[in-house]
Design a protein that fits this description.
By secondary structure, the chain is an alpha/beta fold. The protein has one domain. It contains two helices and four strands. A four-stranded parallel beta sheet has the order 3-2-1-4. The termini are far apart.
Length: 97
């Protein structure tokens, strides 16, 4: 079994993130959404609904492109304390040196 952590970044980078994930051929994927809003799942504003729609499309694309399953969705790295992953992919831009 291959467990992968996928860190979600800007929305326009979602296709690249899905491509990175598919290239790793994981069996299971955990998705980390670090955007600072801990209550995004309960936000019924248009922005909150749009965020959840985006995540639903992203999770579906991951499962469709990998044949694996999304086993979790986290909003903070603390929620993943003690978890182990075989790899990590991110759509975040690397910091300049």
């Amino acid at each position: 079994m291959t467990d992968l952590l996928a860190i979600v970044g800007p929305e326009d980078a979602d296709p690249e993130l899905v491509e990175q994930i598919a290239g790793r051929r994981p069996d299971r994927v955990t998705v980390l959404v670090e955007d600072g809003d801990r209550d995004w799942a309960l936000d019924d504003s248009p922005a909150g609904i749009a965020r959840r729609d985006r995540l639903a499309k992203l999770l579906h694309a991951v499962e469709r492109s990998t044949g694996g399953i999304v086993v979790g969705l986290a909003g903070d790295r603390q929620q993943l304390h003690g978890w182990r992953f075989d790899g990590v992919v991110s759509s975040e831009l690397p910091l300049a040196a």
